[in-house]
Specification:
The protein is of the alpha+beta class and 565 residues long.
Length: 565
């Protein structure tokens, strides 16, 4: 979901990626070079998509400009007539298909072999049909790919010449919470030798591992070499094709390549896999467009944000515009936003706005600041302000302070039914026998531990059902976990408030923090049962704080996050 853009290097990088060195798909390479603005939407798409079965749907279809097709022809060494990209929905699962049409069968064979190398020999991902080559991009689900090939009339693949095996690389032996090893492949010897020859070094083993990082896919290629010099040569070759050095790291006789388009995820992976030392502090620069909200439908909040994110990519999409218009009826916009401003001078968040704020009011004992704007630009009649935030985070997620446990940190609100008898009874049961604040907080967090009382699930992504409903139904998402945690803490006499922002290398998130009087604020993540906020405090980037549960900001763009220091 989160993408940070760096300088693009042009055709040389594009083609080498396609040639199988990094394993990135043709469509990703096209985006790197040309961006979406050069592509022509084509409603009817390819012939093979005209009679799709029930549950299959074409979401978008694009034709690549002729200038790009000619560039691909030169680099592939084959005459191409047309290149298209189609996004399908297969019973709710996304599937991206690139089709390259060639003038001759010989040309199609060249393109097919090159693309097959790009998928590390996963033959089910690439198909030949006459003078055309079909690529299934960004998908390792062999069952889905096999089903797609049959549905679209493409031949089955008898076998996959990669060997699936347990991950033998040491760096995957102790993955942190939220990380999961999905698949691990060992490339065949002939392909390993061919890739080493292309990269200018000898490779004795090449493994490809697919990880899930908080729901985001990360592919890791590990190239083991006989000498440090071989490894250095290979790293230099790969770095020449990368947008950022974080995507390829040298480890003595091995090279570790992160195959993704999210540099923040690559940086985070290097820290978590022990390839780079994790810093005690981290400073981030975040830019986003924010609409000031007076009131709105919380169950539609995340959906509206996602629709605006899609609209930013496809500004001429009438379907997206229509969906946004329907949801906007549930919102009322104003001219004020409130942002987090707590911390000492070194760690205090700093903001720049366009247009500038005409009024600044400090609240929450200096922890929250309300900004008022005038003559804001608009997207689909929604007023917004462009924000640049600089935020410093610390390992452990603790912020010293002298704030006292005042009533505004303990009282019930519209969103937090602290005085509800059932809430009180549940809180007393959870914290029975616990005397100190620390012990009570720990008990409440343990109650939220994964697999116990509340499941991270539900049909509405980014839901906010309300605390009573969440406790009754036993499921929700991060906003629901945070609301419930704040409510239970306040009901047990623990000063608590809500925090929102972004998880570095992941996505938007809502969590919480509790006040230990005389010491300061401790961030906690009830969604993970409190396991991560302490250990991984530098990944929690807070720029929203609420002491009553209200939310004054609707993102109109995906925040772009840059690790500064």
């Amino acid at each position: 979901m989160l993408k940070t853009h760096y300088n693009r290097k042009g055709g040389k990088q594009m083609v080498r990626r396609i040639a199988g060195i990094t394993g990135i798909s043709l469509w990703t390479a096209l985006i790197v070079v040309a961006g979406l603005s050069g592509f022509e939407a084509k409603a009817d798409g390819e012939e093979m998509f005209k009679n799709l079965p029930e549950g299959w749907k074409v979401e978008n279809s694009f034709i690549v400009p002729q200038a790009q097709v000619m560039a691909f022809s030169r680099k592939f060494g084959a005459r191409l007539s047309r290149v298209s990209n189609t996004f399908l929905s297969v019973n709710g699962q996304p599937l991206q298909i690139n089709i390259v049409h060639c003038h001759t069968a010989k040309g199609a064979e060249k393109v097919y072999k090159t693309m097959l190398e790009g998928h590390r020999g996963l033959a089910v991902s690439v198909a030949r049909s006459g003078n055309s080559v079909i690529e299934f991009a960004k998908c390792d689900d062999v069952n889905l790919l096999t089903k797609a090939r049959r549905t679209l009339g493409l031949p089955d693949v008898q076998h996959d010449n990669r060997t699936e095996e347990p991950a033998t690389e040491e760096l995957f032996g102790n993955l942190p919470p939220g990380w999961k090893l999905k698949k691990s492949f060992l490339a065949p010897e002939d392909q390993t030798a061919a890739i080493g020859k292309k990269l200018g070094g000898h490779i004795i083993k090449l493994s490809n591992t697919v990880l899930s990082v908080h729901g985001n896919e990360l592919r890791v290629n590990t190239l083991n070499c006989p000498t440090p010099q071989d490894a250095e040569n290979i790293q230099n070759s790969i770095l020449a094709m990368k947008d950022h050095p974080a995507f390829c790291l040298l480890q003595n006789k091995s090279v570790v390549e992160f195959v993704c388009d999210n540099v923040n995820l690559a940086i985070k992976a290097a820290w978590e896999l022990g390839l780079k030392p994790k810093p005690a502090e981290a400073t981030y620069r975040i830019t986003f467009d924010a609409a000031p909200v007076k009131k709105g439908d919380f169950m539609s909040w995340n959906k509206l944000f996602n629709l605006f994110a899609v609209l930013n990519k496809y500004p001429d999409s009438n379907n997206i515009t229509s969906q946004i218009a329907d949801l906007l009826k549930r919102f009322e916009f104003g001219n004020e936003i409130s942002l987090r401003t707590c911390g000492n001078e070194k760690a205090k968040p700093a903001y720049r706005f366009k247009p500038d704020a005409i009024k600044v009011e400090v609240a929450g004992h200096g922890d929250i600041t309300k900004y008022t704007f005038k003559n804001m630009p608009r997207k689909l009649e929604v007023p917004y302000v462009s924000v640049e935030a600089t935020v410093t985070t610390r390992q452990g997620g603790f912020m010293p302070g002298r704030r006292k446990a005042s009533d505004e940190l303990l009282r019930p609100t519209e969103f937090w039914p602290v005085d509800d008898p059932e809430i009180r009874a549940l809180t007393n049961n959870i914290t029975a026998g616990k005397q100190s604040q620390q012990d009570k907080v720990k008990a409440i967090l343990e109650w939220f531990a994964p697999g116990k009382n509340i499941s991270f699930a539900g049909p509405v992504e980014g839901s906010r059902y309300g605390v009573k409903k969440v406790l009754e139904q036993g499921f929700g998402h991060c906003w629901d976990f945070s609301d419930s945690f704040v409510t239970l803490c306040r009901a047990s006499g623990i000063p608590c408030r809500q925090v929102g922002g972004w998880l570095y290398g992941a996505s938007g998130h809502i969590w919480a923090e509790v006040l230990f009087e005389g010491k300061g604020w401790q961030q906690v993540d009830p969604t993970g049962g409190g396991r991560e906020a302490g250990e991984s405090g530098i990944y929690y980037i807070p720029y929203l704080t609420s002491e009553d549960g209200s939310m004054s900001v609707l993102f109109l763009s995906i925040p772009k996050i840059e690790f500064v220091d």
